Amino acid sequence: MNRSSLDGLRNDCKRCRTTPSDGFYSVYYLPEHNYVGMTKHIKSRMQYHRKKGKVTEGYKIIGTYDSAIKAHYIETKMHLRGYEGFHYYETKR
């Protein structure tokens, strides 16, 4: 139960909350920005997005996968369908 959300439901599954680094990769969606990404550590990734000015409330876990290849495949399919998020690491110029 999440008392801070409007519907009282959590945005992540129990496995993502309790063991974020046990080898599972999550593909997630930020509806406010039409953004799809993947991570092994969902809490720290959402914290990173908040620092960059993105709204993370209401994010959804699309799926969790036991390998980075599977998660990357799903993420790439979502980008090809028009979701934002496909980018390279930021570099200073």
Question: What features would you describe in this structure?
Answer:
The chain is globular. A 3-stranded antiparallel sheet has the order 2-1-3, covered by helices on one side. The chain is α+β, with helices and mostly antiparallel strands. It is built from 3 helices and 3 strands. The longest helix has 13 residues, at 68-80. The protein has helices at residues 14-18, 42-51, 68-80, and strands at 25-30, 35-39, 60-65. The protein has a domain at 23-80. A hairpin with a 4-residue loop joins β1 and β2 (35-39). Helices cover 30% and strands 18% of the residues.
Number of β-strand runs:
3
Mean pLDDT level = 79
The largest sheet is: 3 strands, antiparallel
Oligomer: single chain
Rg measurement, Å:
13 Å
Give the helix proportion (percent range): 25-40%
Report strand order across the widest sheet: 2-1-3
| Low-pLDDT stretches | 88-93
From the N-terminal CA to the C-terminal CA, the straight-line distance is 45 Å
Structural class call reads alpha+beta
User: What characteristic shape results from the CA principal axes?
Assistant: globular
* Total count of helical runs of at least 4 residues: 3
Order of SSEs: HEEHEH
The share of residues in extended strands comes to 15-25%
